Amino acid sequence: MTQDKMITGKKYRGKIALYIFLQFLQTACALLPPYCYLLFLNQVILEEKSELLLYVCLFYVLVFLGDTLVSAAGKMVYNRIFPAMHMEWKEKVLEKYSRLDMDAVQKYTPGELRERLHRDTENAVLYREKMLEICISSVRILATAGILLYLNRILALVSFLFLPLSYYITRYIKGRSNAEYERRRRVQGIYNDFMIHSLQDWKEIRTDCREEAQQRRFAQLWGEMGDAFLKAHMCWFLNRTFLAFKDVFLTKMGLYLLGGFLALGGYVAVPVLLAFMEYYADLANRLLGVIDSIMRRGEQEESVKKVKEILEIPQPERPQTMDSFESLEFREVDFAYKEEEGAVLEKFSLAISRGESVALVGESGCGKSTLIRLMAGCLVPAAGEIRWNGVSMGLMDRASLYARTGFLMQEAGLFNLSVRENLRFGREDASEAQMAQACARANILNFIEELPRGFDTVIGENGIRLSGGQRQRLMIARLLLQDPEVIVFDEATSALDYQNESRILDLLLREADEKTFLMVTHRGTSAAKCGRVVRVSGVPRLSPGAQ
After folding, report:
1. pLDDT single digits (tens) 301-326
2. Residue 418 carries which DSSP code?
3. Which helix (H) or strand (E) holds 392?
4. Is residue 505 exposed (0-12), middle (13-18) or buried (19+ Cβ within 10 Å)?
5. What's 395's DSSP letter?
6. Tens-place pLDDT, residues 276-298
């Protein structure tokens, strides 16, 4: 069963059936007011049956109340279907992100992944909603067309003659609109990447005096997005304006003129003509609604393809779980970021056993941080093998691996949430006392308690409101809450002064017992605290993310 069927399957089938039933009831209620109008003109006005006036008015009031109640019920059912469906789509995509191999994820930029998680999932659900709406409206249009034929065939056939013209014009403009929607979406992804990197690297941008260049790039991307958005909506506007002018004005005026001649010739009664025009107005409005939905389907269809593409990426089977850590082994591992730049690691081998403390040292660019990313599954070796407990990395279940291994990387893994919420990523059920204890061990509790809102203080994206040392101590506190069997530091204490770094390393190594500790560091004093020092002697290169 595909992810798409899982999302729109049995869970919503009953609610969707009820929603369709209520929409058909509302359609029936909407078709009755012109009939009330016809009764009023025929029976009360022309035939002067004033005693029927009360019944006609009562009938109209009942229709109005019924339409109001059915509409309210339809809204309630709607709110239990499509918002929940949207959230489920987002959860499915987010779950897929978390389970994909990093080499699969790295094919997409952060901005593109964000678009698929937010805008594309919203459009994918909107696509299904609009398809349902088009089907329901089509039934209402057919019912209205039948009533028009019943009231007067000549007027009905004349009004139908203009419909193919509307279809072909809409079809042509839709193609132009879809191209602009796709251009806007592509630029939106580039814009998202630009904003993400600008926010992350704002200090470097200011240091290098690149503010003006950033502003020009921002203006360029914003202008391109605005241009594509404007052109797409201009297509919609021109199409709707033309159809409204043709169907609601020209055709309607022509029908009134033709109806007037038919009435004079005795081919149609005036009350029937007026009722006919009421039904025709409903038909024209429904057609405009359907055409609007069709015009907007271009962006929605593209979003459905993008979401399905993510959900249908094959997920490798990893049957082996890690109940406890015993060993980690690199077997003649080769890795290069780009083939033309040469290898960062060549035939690298290393074995680490449970309870060891190991420091990785070496020149900048020799591949120390690359080793950490390889063992975490963020990168895939070009040759060789990485084994956890004797099991190949490709067969090891990542959830069980990450549950027992705590990685602290150079980049800040903090979110635009409160201190408490960031800490609970380490342990979801952590109590206040446990969080306070972990923060005290990481030497950051006093700082948190002095904040205006304490643990409820929001720290900004990537902890931007904190200093480098404060961010690192907060991440160390979160790691202490997680209490993993394997602790991996990738320059995770580089922003701390020697005193704080020495205190935290002594704490971790003293309390580790049978835990395993692996650290990338440039500081000889830090490396000396470990039981074993391994020099990584790869070819020094300035590769993205390598060190």
Report:
1. 888 888 888 888 887 777 788 888 89
2. B
3. strand 391-392
4. buried
5. G
6. 888 888 888 888 778 777 777 77
